[in-house]
Amino acid sequence: MSLQTRLAELERKHQQLEDAIAQAVASPSSSDLSVAELKRKKLQLKDEIERVRQTIPAHTLH
Asked: Which long-range contacts (CB under 8 A, 24 or more apart) does 43-51 make?
């Protein structure tokens, strides 16, 4: 898998988590613990996205 493909996949997963968090926050049946877990996973993905971006030469990012 190329770094560009990996980056796109991570960004897609990050967006999915963002959507899941918004949905969980809007739902009264969601626990604070489950929302916190989703946010933690989203932050981990963000960190991984930044690590991948740092390994891709700047001129190849779009």
From this structure: 45/10, 45/13, 45/14, 45/17, 46/14, 48/10, 49/7, 49/10, 49/11, 49/14
- Sole residue written with tokens 């560009």: 4
* Residue 15 backbone phi and psi in degrees, to 5: -65, -40
pTM of the model: 0.84
pLDDT digits (tens, 9 = 90+) for 6-38: 999 999 999 999 999 999 999 999 999 999 999
Task: Give the start-to-end residue ranges of the domains of the chain.
Answer: 3-57
